[in-house]
Amino acid sequence: AQQFEWLKEDYPSLFKRIQDKAKTGQFVPIGGTWVEMDCNIPSGESLARQFLLGQRFYKQHFGQTCDVFWLPDTFGYSSQLPQIVRLAGAKYFFTQKLSWNNINKFPNTTFWWTGLDGSSVLTHMAPSETYSAQCRPGELINGVKKHKDVAYSNESLYLFGNGDGGGGPLRSMLERLRRMANVDGLPRVKQSHPREFYEHVEKTTRELVAWKGELYFELHRGTYTSQSNNKLWNRQSEFLLRDAELLCTVASFGSEDSEFEYPAEELTRLWKLVCLNQFHDVVPGSAINMVYRDSDKMYKDIISSANRIRKEALANVCRSVAGTDLTSSQGLTVVNTTGWMRSGIVAIPAFTYANIFSDTSPVQIRASDSAVLVPVANVAGFGLHSVSAETCSVRAPKHPVHVSKTDKDTYLLENRFVSVTFNASGHIVSFYDKTEGRELVPKDAAANVFELYDDVPLYWDAWDIEIYSLEKYQTLKSAVVLIVEEGPLVASISVRVPISDGSVLTQTISLSEHSPRLDFDCSVDWHENRKCLKVSFTWDIYSDVATYETQFGVVQRPTHRNTTWDMAKFEVCGHKFADLSEFGYGVALLNDCKYGFSTLGNSMSMSLLRAPKAPDEHSDMGHHSFRYAIYPHTGTFSESNVVQEAYQFNVPLLELPITIPPQISSLRKRPFFSVSGARNVVLDTVKRAEDDKTSYIVRLYEAYGGHARALLTSRLPFSSVCKVNLLEEPMDGPGIERLDHSTALKVPFKPFEVVSLLFTL
């Protein structure tokens, strides 16, 4: 739809002609999304917005939505796409990219693709294995020879014209098709709307095979990592817009006399920019240099505007709670935009600390910027917390964290939960869980090990990481380790790792007093040529599968290479975490912007940076900042709180320099939204409805793969609520039960189900 919008803005008369031809059936608007997006990197909400923006545009300007999700070219297909497609009003799917697989041939042509939650879409992959056919007899013959489901359906789609650069069908192509329409030895050819093909297959074929789960693309695995900063800004933009929409909704609906104006037009503009940059050669990192100079400017615009909106909405929310003008206040209010209670440590300027705590000496001053560290406990999900002498302790914690250097030239970070030992290279040689009495690093193994790989693909630099690259690498052992923070709230060491004569990595490794999570804050000056930097972790944990976050859920992949299908997944995509668990225990690797992972046996690795030289010879050159963390947990992944911890790692507590009067500070215990009775349900999105200024949307999903019956409470007013799809249209399904004399709702969930609710005043 983005191209049509550009056409409408720049060439309105031509766009009007296209609209007229669409009415007569001579032009077929198809697609369903804002752009032909990547399906690996974008979040679940981003994919939802791709369809929301795209389908609304088609409905507004062409009178109907698309029932065929048309995505000929992208680099793999998330296992949640079937559900998202169905929730966006479509039921058919077309692509052909898996024909490019470089290890296994995908076994199906026309089949039912079943997603994580059990939703299915009728899927077709053109057996001619191209989306820019030239209308030659050999291509038509290939459409028969390579049709893998011809026993069930003897029809296929044939895409012709000069594509992947523009031009479309030529007169000569149309003439050749006319001549080949009914020729002995060739399949019969006719022109039709793609919908006709799918409807005919649906009516006449009853025994199509089904494929469950992701459609993993066995090529272009480097796109999980190339153009690292672009991926960082994409992740930041997604979460900034999440916070901004949530707080704007609370600000505009939170009180009857609210004068806050929900910035719908600006938020839509920002989402369009985010979705534009999720085109399948932009966020994957496979575009030319000029594209990234443009996208840099767009992300700067997105982040600046979203931060401003979030700040204004947050101030308005706090004013609404306090019932007074707070513009001149000098205190501090903390806001938790995740859906569960959490504790943390906030860093505040020294003058703000002095205003709040008078003459009480700070417990810890951060060395890097002289900010004062203050612990904040039990901040309610979607709630406020006023930082004051009454609500926050500024005394030394009962169980402080500490750091020390031993006689063996090793370093120890320790709190009441874990003790972590580093050698002189910055490698973790011991990670001991004190609560469980368990050592996580096997003897003679290590974690947080940096490895530099030769990274020379066969054909496409920015796109590919090849399996043979795993055979040639060096472990980076030279390092300088220093103690930088000694506690008692946070203890840290600094590790400086020379990568080459031109590149160096510096990381600050921190442990807080309130959590077993170990954080790594990395800064890299990167000037390499066709190299890939990974960090690896070897654990005393054994499992045949590792769990990776995907959009609105998780996917499990093998940790062995028994078959060629297993071997092909030597590099896979994950979002905020990857987890390796056995019965009773597991370890999760969290991140704030990385997507390329690998787990072989009990060794996990995460791809950090690449240095491809085409199509952008300057790709990834320069400075990079990113974070990751190790989070040990009891129980298997399904019994853990890894999803919640990964959210917290990406969504910091928000701080606003205002004071909510003490007499009403108890309001922080009344969150704007709460979800109880189902810890496997995550409230992900709150926004105003698209077409109704008196309604708002709450979107939740089941995150672990089980049934649930959640109790959802909204402090915002509403008179009615109904279940809707991603286009915010009412839909059938299990009823939403409202408890008598209450604002609480009972909401049923299937495994990995996405549920959107429309609340109306």
Poorly predicted parts: none
Give the overall average pLDDT.
93
Summarize the biggest pleated sheet.
9 strands, antiparallel
Q: How far do the termini sit from each other?
A: 32 Å
How are the strands ordered across the major sheet?
18-19-20-21-30-27-26-23-24
Judging from the principal axes of the Cα atoms, what is the shape? globular
**Which structural class is indicated by helix and strand composition?**
alpha+beta
Rg over CA atoms: 27 Å
Could you give the count of β-strands? 39
- Counted by DSSP, the helix tally is 13
Q: Please state roughly what percent of the residues sit in beta strands, choosing from under 5%, 5-15%, 15-25%, 25-35%, 35-45% or over 45%.
A: 25-35%
Any overview of this molecule?
The protein has 761 residues and is of the alpha+beta class. It has 13 helices and 39 strands. The strands form eight sheets. It has a nine-stranded antiparallel beta sheet with strand order 18-19-20-21-30-27-26-23-24. Strands 17-16-22-29-28-25 form a six-stranded antiparallel beta sheet, with no helix packed on it. It has a five-stranded mixed beta sheet with strand order 1-2-4-3-5. A hairpin with a 2-residue loop joins strand 23 (545-550) and strand 24 (553-558). The longest helix has 34 residues, at 289-322. It is globular, with a radius of gyration of 27 Å.
